[in-house]
Every structure is written in structure tokens, then in C-alpha cells.
């Protein structure tokens, strides 16, 4: 279905549609047991798309489809599969087939797979890997999760300073098939200390009589094996590197992290951040793959209870001042409106500050100026919203006192929300707590409790109760 | 300050600290008018860090610091500066210096700069660029913002199928200094139609008598000039490519997009998504650089008014049923608690669904199963929270009827919130509206209005009013 001489996507088809078409055609061919046709169908398809197609097949057909692939393609496709499909295939295959694939995977993908497998299976596989691969894997698994050490790969090219450019290029050619990338080359001394870096571009454009030492850059941006992976992603993003070297505590080169792995890290970290803003404990990126409803409820109930507990204060405040509401029942009508408006303003302020902290656009040093700015904006917004709400309250209840009480309260609540919405993330960042997860419940609670108190106090004053 | 023979970051210093140290030392040297010392200070520092340091200098010192750099480094650093610093420097410099830098920037960075400059300045600069650069720039600026055409660069290497591997490598060497990347090479025919792609790795490891046609892959993943940049980022992330070719409607190759530009796109798009979830219209990534408070208020007031308007319904509902509250004033105490709990549950559901839609982890096809799952989880959570709240309400008001009314309402509200929180994003996605921006206000309003109605109705039944 793809023209051999044109780009693989016709002008009007999306990748999802492509995968859907391949999947249904593949199913038909497998039903007809036309394995040759199925194999031919998959030849021009990208490994990433093959993996997506296989994931969507019925479980019984996945192993059959996978076996259609050539050895090299099978390994590539395997690395792109979802981990539950990877596990299912491991159980399907004969020992030897499994071992071949697992042995040939790149070490970082293998470590990621082993992280998901049951410990028994991991032990068995580890024992049967070739010695070099076993060593590479246990090295990676030895590092804490979410650190550079865990996501790096030891398959890099190291050069000696004394090599000529011609010799270096020859070494690159020889190792090209067994390394993660040949575009970034690292220079080490005899003790494996990292002394320099050069790109393949620099090597190719240098004179062949020059040495590696002439071409390389001695200022190398590095990360350590215990560097947090979020920091790694930030460095790759800021410096626009295609790969980063990872050193141990002795400054010896132990691995590299390539930008494509960083893209995955960024996606997972962003999901965690977004979940945190919404009050959901992250289960990795597995929310929609988790089938156990109790597990999902557990991811969510913790923060709901914390918020519920914090919000009980609002009911205590109101219960304590019930006589005001008894006197002017109309006041009750505006409680949701006021605390919702406060919550919305607080959410806006905290959202931009939390994101700004994450991207290093603002720092705790600048907290005061940011909070001042947010307060002024909050005042502005409070005046605009307050006027609108005064009009509405008068229309609803036909009482200027109630309307003014509501309007003034809204102004005060909006100001309060802006201040707390912008200040609390800084405070939590300073206390080394995650601003995203910690601030939202506190901000809502602060705004609600104080907001309700302000409202009833203002009402008391305005209505001279 | 950096040891020439060791990696540039000592084991215990962060990049922020490094930049801070360089900045303060630089300021001291500039005050003393020691330009030679200042120049030497900057030699081993990465362009990205120099740009960050210059950005933090007082405005009057920025131009002086910038002039310390060599021509090549100046261009690199300039591309990394914030756009307001880029603009300030343009006004500072002599015509010719500005032109030299702007002329030598890579076309995609130049297009990005021109997007920010006043139109008058852009016209003047455009007219004075060299013809090739002017053509490259107007080409890019001719495309709609947020499309592949706008973020691509025309500086790629194209090869003919008939070249031998040796000839191809020679061409790569010759063009290495003027192209964005030499690691991905594109094969075109005499009409510039894209016919294949090959990596430099493949070229280097091929036999030198082979031709490009032997080595290249004919299945190429492409994007078109009008492809949305979010889609471009998704493709690069999924396929792990270092670069993507961009073709026009005739399938002719017009440019490439490299992964480092995609990283920037991802960051900006993520900020937009996060802002949308928080109810903030995005001003690009300029929230903290905007100094006009009225502009900021304008970014935020629109959604606040929409939400306020939607929330007026809650006050109408309560005002309409004031007699219930008159009869049992204790009921008013729990209004904030109930709608807050509903809002939190709704926010959780919508957050995970919106993020899932964004990452293509769920699609509208699966809407029914996702909503069902969320409803069941909502029921589970509602039971847990409801029991807790019944205990609290009884403790506060000493009335079983009120406690039961509150508990049953919480259960109903939680279920309602889960359903609307998961369903509305799918609905808006189906209507081609942005789920993130559209759903949150509707979900809060639906939960609040219906929640309050449910509460007063349940109270009426339980208390037999």
C-alpha cells in the first residue's frame, strides 16, 4: 500500500489511520493464515508503527505477528512495545528466542523492561544473558530509579587523545553498529577519566593529520550517575545536545544519555506535574493501563481526604456564625459563587507560578516581586469581578446591603487568592516540597476558609448585624 | 575558573550557581573596565550559559559584554538570548554589526526573532540581508505560525541517488559548516522530490563503491509545511528521529526540523496546556516577561468572567430554595465542603482524561469504557468520602438527618463529578474544541449547580420539609 518511490504517508492520511489500516489488513491475512502476505505487508512499515499495530492485536495473535519479523527488526520493534505486551511475549516464546531478543536489546531499554518484570523472571533472564550484557544490565539496575545512571546506556565510543583523525574515523566505523550514537564521541585517558568531547561533524571536517586532541573540546557538560533525571532533561533541553556523558564519583565515563531517551523522560515528568496539579498521585504513566479499580481509587483518595479535612474548617466557620445566615438567609446563596471565584483566581496564580518554577523562569529570589505583581493583578481582577457581582446580587435579592457585602467580599477574596496562589508555591519550593502537589490543596483551603470568614464578617458589618 | 583538563562543572556546583559566579565576576571586571580579563573569563563558558549571564546583566552592560565575544560565538550566543534582549541589542548596535549577526543566524532562529520585532525594524533588516538569507527568511515567515513551515530550516544536505558513497561523504564534508545537521541526509531527484533518507551512520559504514541508492531507505516519514507543530513534536517523540524532512504540496523537500527545535516546541505547548488547565489564556511563554499589568489581567479575566457567569446559576438555585435553609440553617454550613469535594473529584477525572487525550493514550473511541471506569471509581471514592463526612456532620450539628443529607449528597455529587469530569473532555475533543480550556469551567459549573440542587433536594426529602 505504500509507493516504493514516494514518502510513506500519502498526503491525506494520518499515522493513526495508517496503523489502523495495517492492523486490519494484518488481521485478515493472519486469519487466512497467509503468513507470507503478512510478512510482506510489514516490510515497509516503520518499527514504531509495527509496535503500535501489534499492541492493538488480540493477545493470541501478537506472538504470531511478532514472529513474522526479521531478527534485527524484531529487536527494534520489541523495544517500542508497551511493557505488558513485552511481558506477554516473553511468556509466549521459547527460551532461546526470548534470550536472543533480550540479549540484543540496548541496555537502557533492557533495564526498563526488567524494571517491570516479576523478579523471578528477571533473575532467570539475567543468569542466561551473555556476560557483557549481564554486567551492563546489573550496572544500570544498580542505580536508583529516576537518576541518570538508570537511564543511561554504556554503549558509547571512547577515543584516545593521541589518535589521528583518520584512525579515529576508522574506529568509529568499526564500532558504529554496536553503539547508541556515533555523532558524539568522548575522549578518555587510560583510567577512563573523561577529558574531552567532539562531534562527528568536527571529526569529519578536520584535516586527517590532526589528532583527536587538536579537535576536541575540553569543556564538557556532564551529569553524574546520581543526577536527577529531570535535571538531565533540563540540561539537554537548554544546551541542545544530542547526547550527554555520565560520569561516576571519580569522574570516570560510565555511560551516555541520548536526546530520544530524554524526550521520554520529559513526557513522563510532564504527566507527573500535570497530575499533581490536578491532585492525582502519579502511577507512572500507567493510569489507563491499570485495571484494578481499587488501585486507581487509592491513587486519588489520599489527596481527596486531605482536601476534605482541610475543607471541614469552612463548615465549622459557618456553623459557628449560623445566626448571621438565620438573619439574612439570602447570604447563603452567594457562598458557592464567592469561593468558586476565589478558587479560580488562586488556581490561575498558582498555575503560572508553579510552571515558572519548573522551567526556572522564576526563582525563589524573585518571589517578592512576583507576589506583588500577582496581588496588583488580583486587585484589578477583583474590582472588575466585584462590580459585576454587585449588579447580579442586587438583581437576585433586591437588597443593596447584601449586594455590597457580596461585592466587597469578592474583592477581598480575589486579593487573598492571588497572594496565597502566588506565595504558597514559593514557600513550598523553599521548603524543598513539590510546589505542584502541595500548593493546590492549601491554596483552596486557605481561600475557602478565610474567604467564608471574610464574607460573614463583611456581612455582619455592612448589615449591622 | 575552570580547570582546562577536567569537565567544566566541579562536582558540587549547579548550573545556576555557575552562571551566578560568572555573572558577578563579569560585572566586577566590566566595572574595572578590564575588557581583556572579561573576554578571558568567557572563553571556556558554554554559549547557552553566556546568554543566560548576559540576560541577567543590567541593560547598559549587556551590549558591552556582548561585544567581547568572537564573531562566531556572538552568533551562537545571540540565538540563545531572550527575545527582549535580542531586540535591545539590535537597537544598541551599529547597523553593520547587527546585519552581520542577523545575516549569519540560522534561518529558523532568525524567523523566530523577526516574529518578535516591530514590523518597521523587520522590513529594514530584511531589505539589507544578503539575497539568499532574505529568501530563506521570507519563505519561513510566509508560513502560518505554529506550523512545520515556520519552525523548519532550509539548511539541509540533499544528495542524488547516483552518487557513490565516497562522493556523498565528500559532499557532506564540504557542506558540514553551513547546514543544520549532517547526521540525516536526504535524497532528492532533479525536481527536488524527496525520494529517500539515510543517516550518516549508514553512509559511513557502507562500502565506498556502493551508491546512495543502495544505502538509502525509501520509506520516509515526512511532515508537510502546514502540519501543526504539536503533531511534528509528537512524530519526533514517537519515532526517535533526530530530524524530520518537511515537504510542500508537490512533495518537494523544502526544509528540515531538528530535534532540538522540537524540544522547545514541546516546552511551549506544554506550558499552553498547563495554563489552559489552570484557566489562563497563554501569552506564549511570556507571562513573566510581560510588564503591563492590564495585559496580564486581560489574559486572565476572560475565563474568570465566563466562570463567574456559569456560577451565578448556583446562587439562583439557592435563592430559589431559600426556605429550606431558613428552616434548617445548619445546611448552609456544608455547602462549601460539598462543592469543593465535587470540584476536586471532577478535576482529578478531567486532568487524567485531558492528558490522556493529549498523549494519544486514549481516543474518543474508548470514551465509553473510560467514563464507565471513572464512574465506578467515583462511586468508590464517594462511599469513602461520604462515610467520613457523615461522621463529621453529625459531630458538628448533632443531627442525623442533616448528617445523612450531607453524606448522601456527597456520594451523588462525587459520582456526578466523575462522570462529567471524564465525559466533557471527550465531548469537546469530538467537537474539535480544546478539551483543556473548555472542560474545566463547564465541569466546575455543572458540578456546582447540579450539586447544590441535589443537596437541597436530598435535604428536603431526608428532613421531610
TrEMBL record, chains A, B:
Keyword Metal-binding recorded: yes
Gene Ontology CC terms, in alphabetical order: plasma membrane
Residue stretches making up the CBS domain: 152-215, 216-272
Membrane topology: Multi-pass membrane protein
SMART domains, per the entry: CBS, MgtE_N
Localization of this protein: Cell membrane; Membrane
UniProt family annotation: Belongs to the SLC41A transporter family.
Name of protein: Magnesium transporter MgtE
Gene symbol of the encoding locus: mgtE
Amino acid at each position: 500500500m505504500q509507493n516504493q518511490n514516494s514518502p510513506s504517508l500519502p498526503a491525506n492520511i494520518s499515522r493513526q489511520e495508517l496503523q489502523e489500516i495495517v492492523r486490519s489488513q494484518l488481521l485478515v491475512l493472519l486469519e487466512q493464515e497467509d503468513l507470507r502476505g503478512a510478512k510482506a505487508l510489514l516490510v515497509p512499515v516503520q518499527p514504531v508503527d509495527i509496535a503500535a499495530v501489534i499492541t492493538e492485536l488480540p493477545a493470541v495473535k501478537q506472538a504470531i505477528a511478532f514472529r513474522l519479523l526479521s531478527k534485527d527488526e524484531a529487536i527494534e520493534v520489541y523495544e517500542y512495545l508497551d511493557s505488558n505486551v513485552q511481558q506477554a511475549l516473553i511468556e509466549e516464546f521459547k527460551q532461546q528466542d526470548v534470550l536472543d531478543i533480550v540479549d540484543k536489546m540496548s541496555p537502557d531499554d533492557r533495564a526498563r523492561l526488567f524494571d517491570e518484570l516479576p523478579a523471578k523472571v528477571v533473575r532467570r533472564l539475567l543468569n542466561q544473558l551473555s556476560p557483557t550484557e549481564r554486567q551492563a544490565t546489573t550496572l544500570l539496575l544498580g542505580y536508583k530509579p529516576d537518576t541518570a545512571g538508570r537511564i543511561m546506556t554504556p554503549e558509547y565510543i571512547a577515543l584516545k587523545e593521541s589518535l589521528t583523525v583518520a584512525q579515529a574515523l576508522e574506529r568509529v566505523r568499526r564500532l558504529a553498529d554496536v553503539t547508541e550514537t556515533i555523532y558524539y564521541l568522548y575522549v578518555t585517558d587510560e583510567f577512563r577519566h573523561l577529558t574531552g568531547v567532539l562531534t562527528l561533524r568536527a571529526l569529519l571536517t578536520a584535516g586527517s593529520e590532526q589528532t583527536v586532541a587538536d579537535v576536541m573540546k575540553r569543556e564538557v557538560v556532564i551529569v553524574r550517575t546520581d543526577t536527577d533525571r529531570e535535571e538531565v532533561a533540563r540540561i539537554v533541553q537548554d544546551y541542545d545536545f544530542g547526547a550527554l556523558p555520565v560520569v561516576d564519583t571519580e569522574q570516570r565515563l560510565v555511560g551516555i544519555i541520548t536526546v530520544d531517551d530524554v524526550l521520554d523522560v520529559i513526557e513522563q515528568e510532564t504527566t507527573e506535574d500535570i497530575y499533581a496539579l490536578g491532585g492525582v498521585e502519579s502511577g507512572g504513566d500507567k493510569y489507563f493501563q491499570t485495571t484494578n479499580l481499587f488501585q486507581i481509587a487509592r491513587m486519588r483518595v489520599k489527596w481527596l481526604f486531605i482536601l476534605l479535612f482541610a475543607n471541614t474548617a469552612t463548615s465549622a466557620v459557618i456553623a459557628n456564625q449560623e445566626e448571621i445566615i438565620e438573619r439574612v438567609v439570602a447570604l447563603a446563596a452567594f457562598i458557592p459563587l464567592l469561593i468558586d471565584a476565589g478558587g479560580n483566581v488562586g488556581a490561575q496564580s498558582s498555575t503560572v507560578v508553579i510552571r515558572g518554577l519548573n522551567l526556572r523562569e522564576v526563582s525563589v529570589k524573585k518571589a517578592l516581586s512576583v507576589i506583588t505583581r500577582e496581588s496588583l493583578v488580583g486587585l484589578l481582577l477583583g474590582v472588575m469581578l466585584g462590580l459585576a457581582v454587585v449588579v447580579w446580587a442586587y438583581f437576585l435579592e433586591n437588597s443593596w446591603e447584601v449586594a455590597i457585602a457580596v461585592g466587597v467580599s469578592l474583592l477581598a477574596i480575589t486579593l487573598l487568592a492571588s497572594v496565597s496562589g502566588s506565595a504558597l508555591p514559593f514557600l513550598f519550593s523553599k521548603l524543598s516540597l513539590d510546589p505542584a502537589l502541595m500548593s493546590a490543596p492549601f491554596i483552596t483551603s486557605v481561600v475557602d476558609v478565610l474567604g467564608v470568614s471574610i464574607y460573614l464578617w463583611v456581612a455582619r458589618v455592612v448589615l449591622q448585624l
